Every structure is written in structure tokens, then in C-alpha cells.
Amino acid sequence: MAAHALTIALAGNPNVGKSTLFNALTGSHQHVGNWPGKTVEKKEGSLRIGSDDIIVVDLPGTYSLTAYSIEEIISRDFILLEQPGAVVVVVDAANLERNLYLVTQLMELDIPLVLALNMIDMARKRGMHIDVRLLSARLGGIPVVELVGNSGIGIESLKEAIRGMVRRTEPGTVHVPYDDAVEAELPRLQTAIDNAGFARPRWSAIKLLEGDLLITDTIAQRGGGALVEAAQGAMKRIEAATGEDAETLLTDGRYQFIMGLVDGVLTRSTVGRTPSERLDHILTHRLLGLPIFLLMMWFIFQLTANVSAPMVDWMDGLVNGIFGRWITSVLSMVGLSGTWFESLLVGGVLAGVGGVLVFVPVLMVLYFAIGVLEDSGYMARAAFVMDRAMRVVGLHGKSFLPMLVGFGCNVPAVYATRTLEHETDRKVTGFLVTFMSCGARLPVYVVVGSALFGAAAGNLIFGMYILGIVVALATAFILKRGIYRNQPPQPFVMELPPYRMPRMRDIWRQMSNRTGSFVREAGTIILATSVVIWLLLALPVDGQSAFNDVAPEQSAFGAVSRGMSPIFEPAGFASWQTSGALVSGLVAKEVVVSTMNQIMVGESMQAGAEAAESVETTTFGEDLSEIGNSLVETAVLTVQETLNIVPRTLNIIPGLNVPELSLLGAGEEEDTTALEASLVRLLTPLSAVAFTAFVLLYTPCMTTVAAMRQEFGTRWALYQVVYTLVVAWAVAVLIFQGGRLLGLGA
Amino acid sequence: MTLDSLTCGQSAIIRRVGGSGALRRRLMDMGLGRGVTISMLKVAPLGDPVAYHVLGYQLSLRKSEARLIEIEEA
């Protein structure tokens, strides 16, 4: 017990400012990961009070401690198994009654409690007054601390209370009194449980009477079958005596206890409509609600897809340009210039590092947007407004945002599923977002489209976007009506929290924590894939070429591509070049076009070779000033892209054509005329449609797979890879064969 | 009478929470206990779900869920 005495847990309902308190307590001494085997975020930090080092564990926000949701099971198990020295239960002072429900459940666990009465300022503004001393006395003397978490008021008193609590050994003694019929059964059951050697007899007895599946199973498995039977007998007697089931009586008991608790503790003076209510009237308005929602989502889409683009380019230039040059010059100093080692570092490792880092700006922008939406309270409204429409395919209102973000980039879209509460919804939505046609796929449609359809390329592009949506919705339908058919629909029972100003410090912390864990956890896979592709390209298979000096066609990469091409025969694109482009597209869709350029037009394949050919001798000082200059340029472009959201939004209206701002002149476009000429030789219009459909639907990229693995586990990520490959192939074949039957193309 | 029959601004007292399993538990955990006063605030733009005021906060329920709550006039 002593070893655990210095761990405390933070518990509380969602939206009570628990994260703010956690940040205020632990500062930068925190670590974010996942609960073992679960997709629920686990935050741990440390806190020093006087001479005590205390570990603070942030439990998932829950309304209750039942066995029905992962978050609740995690919280409950942590308290039962890890036995923290104390639990700080964070309570929204402006929402006292409902918040106290969780408190009554924690009291039953017989654990030392500290009640943190947060957002006391909001409560006062709403005309509520809470008699803290009386509340503490009625709760058996547990410390009750008033706090305003985001301005730090009360934090020191909370620390003092925690310090006092973890040194105390005897838990609180107040118990919720239940209906007489229940209380008549409890002592007997408790004694039996105690005699059988189970811990926390009163809590276990209550859980058995409630019919809690997990506890009933655990007790039955550990030889407590007789106890379970005794509890079932008691449940029958209770129902016979009162006409109500035990579960209802227990819940009623808790609410009656709460009503008695707040009577005289909480006094309300009536105030008019709060600013939050007035704002809500507009944001969820019958006519305005939906357009406002769509505009908000469109804005976030623009942020992730376009506003982050200059930062992505900057990061890309930094890693592949300047860092590449530095590595090259360091290697030439030690005489390794031009060797396979240099090629591995620049073409394999550095490209992989770059592949990870370019997602950092996108993810930061996404997490910022999500942070603002969630912290302000709008996210719940978004679900409220959108739920009816999303339910048609069995999804939750909150699934809309990840799907929309997917049109920009699938990677942040996978992480955006974190806003969903239920694991099934989260997984299903994560499965779907990869069919949203992301920005990196667009150049493929453009090149293929303009090569084979000329001016009609727009129809192909539009068709692909629609196809992605159709496949996603069909997948949702299959998953919800098929695999998850037997699962009861997830309830929508959801709190609409009052609006408040988002707290930038918390959002920033969440942004950097989550982006950091992406780099750590997804980085390895991306790096490994990048090195593998490099190796395939460097390994000769023709018996003549040397390692790292081989034409793509004679490399292992060429051999793999050739070996795969018969698979695509029925889809109409069986050349090794198109297969090769698809293989490298597994790493990232944005390299499909450049790979096609390299192997079809015959440019040098190795990314590093390009840099080596045009050896620019720059000094370190020049590099630094280039970084500085490009940073300024990036800042200008970011502002430009943010401002350009306005014309882009207005241009949706047909007939309107507001010019977009271009502060630094047009960027250079990749020249693809030669590529288009060779595409005409390799593809027919019909097989071109099949090819682009395949590019749209197959495994989006290694980064998305890595993100899926981080969020949903290895198995789910593998399902996704297999499913997307099968669907992509089937659709491509269907298009090609179907088209031929209809007499389209030859 | 069930909760979905309330009109905008009307309040009632909860008499019984129906349903079963996780859904029923969740409804009860969110404050829908016997004897609790609840009032209807507004309907979402697409006609469903519906927002209610209960225990000092706003709760949103689908109509199918509101149908499980038996109420009596306040």
C-alpha cells in the first residue's frame, strides 16, 4: 500500500476543466500515451508538494462508473487495482447535482476523496452560491476546494488538500442510504462477500444488486457463485417488495441523496438568459444551424488542407534540401561521398524523416482546430446538428468532421476520430476516412485525366471524389449492418456543455502532446518503409548492375512491380511501370506522379542522386539565412492562404469568381508533358479510369496506416490494408470489365 | 405520456426510465432519475435529436431515446 500512497488520480465528468487542472498541477512534467490495449488517451504527470513527489494520473472523463463503456471500466479498474492514495474528483460547480452523481459512486469505492469544485466563477456568474463547509460536512468531512482552474485560483489549496489526503489512511465514512428494501438485503450480502474474502464488500454487494456484468463475472469466476445466487435472490425479493428493480432503486437512492445533499448547500438566484444561451440560440437555430455548421467545417477543411500547405512545403524544403546538403557535405569530409551509405542516409533515412515531419504542421493545425471546437463547446452542437443526417448510414454526428478532414489529408482525419466517444464509432469512422480523396491523390487524377481526357479531365476528378464517398458510405453500411449488426446502437445521450472561451494554453499543450506522440509512434513505421523502398531500388536483380547503381527496371523494385502486374491484367493496366507507381504510392500518394515521371520518362530515380548532381556549394551561413528567408516567406504564404479562405468560400456560389490573393507570385508547376505522352501509350481511356479508381481506393499511404495502428491497433490497421486493396482491385476490375461489356474503350 | 411528446418550453416530471442494458444505465447516469424535473429546450435543425434541460444542464437525446422516458405533468 505504501508504494502506491503517492499516486493520485483525477476523476470527473467530461467538460469540467479536468485537463486544465491536470496541466496546472503537473506543468510540463507530463506524459501522454494510451491505456494499455485501448484507444483511450492516458495522461500521467508528476507533482511536487513540499518534499513529496506525487504521480498524478488523469482518468478518462466519465459520468458514471458502470461496466458499459471502456472509459468507465478503465477508471474503475485503475482505482480498484492500482489503489491510488487519493482521488481528486473534479466537479463543475455550475452543474453540481449531476456531477455529484459520480462523487456518490466514488464514495462507494471507499477511497480517500478530495472534491475540487472547479469553475466556481462561472457558477457565481449564473447566480449560484455553494456553501462549501456544509457540503464538506455532509460528505463526511472530505476536503472541498473551490477553484478557478484556468486562472490558477485555488491550486495551492488543492495541493495542500492532496498532501493531507495521501497521508491519511482511513477513508470517508458517509454512505449513500438506499431504499429500505435494498438496505434490508445489503448487510447479509456484505457479510457473505466479506467472509468469502472479497474486498470492498458494500461496493461489491451494490454492484451485484445492480447486475453489473463485469463484477458479477469476476466474483463468479473466483468461486463466488453462491454470492451471485444470493444476490439474485435478493434482487427478486427487492422487486417483489417494491415493484421496482434493484438497479432503479439504487439510482433513485443516489439522486435522492444528492437532492438532500444540495438542499441548503446550493442556493440559486435567478438570472436572465446567459450569453451562452443566447449564442446557442443562433448556433443551433432551426434554419441557421446547418449552414453555420457547414461553414465551420469548411473553414477547418481549408485550414488543414491549404493554410498548412506553406508550412508543409517549408518543412519539406528544410529536410530534403538543406539537411540533405549538410549530410552530403559531412559525409564528403569523411570520404563517404557518393557511396551507398550516403544514398541510404539521404534517399532512405532522410526521406523517411521528411515523410514524418511534413505531417507535423498539418496535425498541429488540425489539433488546434479540434481543440478550439471541443473546448468552446461547439463540438457537441456539431454532433447535435448533424446527427440525423449521419444516422442514415449508422454513424454518429461527430463522424462528419473526420470524414471532411479526410479530403485534405487522411492522416489528420484518422486522428480526428478521437472526438468520437465510442470505440466502435471511432473504428468505423477511421475505416471510412481513408476513402475520402485526399489532396495527394489529386495530382494523379490531374495528370492521368489531362493525358487521356484532355479538357474533360474535370469530369474524371469529380467522379473520383464521388466514388470515394460512395465507397465510404457503402463500407459504413456493411460494417454497421454486418459486423456490428448485433451491437446495440450507440446511444446519443449527450451533454451540450455551456460555451466558453477556449483556453489557448491547454489547446497548445494538447497540440504538442498529440503531435509529439505521432512523431514517436508513427515515425518508426514510416522510416522503415522508406528504407525498404530505398533498398528495393538499390538492389540489382539483373546480375550485371552494381548495388545502388541500377536502373529501376533492373532493380528489385522493378522485379516486384513486374511480378505484381499480372494481378492488374483484368483491370486493364498491367504494365510494370503503372504497378511500380502503385507500389511507391504505398509510401505516399504524392510520389505516384513523380515515380511515374521517373520510370516512364526515364529520369534519375534516386532522390539523393538529384541533389548530388546539382551540387550547390553553400556555406553554413547561407543555409541559415535561407532557412530564415524561407521562414518569412512561409509566414507570408500562411497569411495569404488564411485570407484566401474568403474568396474560395465565395467562389462556391455559382457565377461568382473572386480572385485569390497571390503575394509572392505563382509557384513553379511540375512539367508533366512527357509523362502524359507515355501515359497515352500505357493506358486506354477506360483503363485510365480503372487506374485512377485504384489509386483513390487502395491503401492510402504508410503514414495513414501508421496512424491507424497507433489509434486502433495493429490488427485493425491490417484489416484496413487488406480491405482497401481488395475493394480497390474489385472496383477497378468492375470499371474495366463493365466498361468493356458496354463497349467503351477497347 | 413519454418525453418525446413534450413541446418547446414545456416541463414535466420523470416517472420511469425504460429501455434496457447500456442505454437505460446511461440515461439514468445522465440525471434522468425518478422525480427529476425536465424541460424541453429545442429541436435540432433536421428534426432530431432534441435538447432538454435537466438537473441544471443541457442534455440532448434522440427521439427514439426520449420515447423510453415516462413522464407526468409538472
Write the layout of secondary structure elements.
The complex is a heterodimer of chains A (746) and B (74).
Chain A (H helix, E strand, L loop, with lengths): L6 E6 L5 H9 L3 E5 L6 E9 L2 E7 L11 H13 L3 E7 L3 H13 L4 E6 L1 H6 L2 E3 L1 H7 L5 E3 L8 H13 L12 H16 L5 H10 L2 H9 L3 H18 L3 H17 L3 E3 L6 H9 L5 H19 L1 H25 L6 H18 L1 H18 L1 H14 L8 H9 L1 H7 L6 H11 L8 H11 L4 H27 L10 E2 L8 H35 L17 H9 L11 H10 L4 H12 L5 H7 L6 H24 L1 H6 L22 H10 L2 H13 L4 H11 L1 H28 L5
Parallel strand pairs in A: 1-4, 1-5, 5-6, 6-8
Antiparallel strand pairs in A: 2-3, 3-4, 7-9
Chain B lengths: L10 E7 L3 H9 L7 E7 L6 E5 L2 E5 L1 H4 L2 E5 L1
Antiparallel strand pairs in B: 1-2, 1-5, 2-3, 3-4
Number of helices of chain B: 2
Overall outline of chain A: elongated
The first-to-last residue Cα distance of chain A is 77 Å
- Give the low-confidence spans of chain A: 603-614
| Lateral strand order in the biggest sheet of chain B | 4-3-2-1-5
The largest sheet of chain B is: 5 strands, antiparallel
Question: How would you classify the helix and strand content of chain B by structural class?
Answer: alpha+beta
Classified by CATH, the class of chain B is: Mainly Beta
Q: How large, in whole angstroms, is the Cα Rg of chain A?
A: 30 Å
Q: How is the CATH topology of chain B named? A: SH3 type barrels
Overview of the molecule:
The complex is a heterodimer of chains A (746) and B (74). Chain A is α/β, with parallel strands linked by helices and 746 residues long. Among the domains of chain A are: 2-167, P-loop containing nucleotide triphosphate hydrolases (Rossmann fold, 3-Layer(aba) Sandwich), CATH 3.40.50; 180-268, Orthogonal Bundle (Helix Hairpins). The longest helix of chain A has 35 residues, at 504-538. Chain B has one domain (3-73): Roll (SH3 type barrels). Chain B is built from two helices and five strands, in the order βαβββαβ. Chain B is globular and about 30 Å long. The chains are: A alpha/beta (746), B alpha+beta (74). The interface between A and B is large, with 40 and 35 residues.
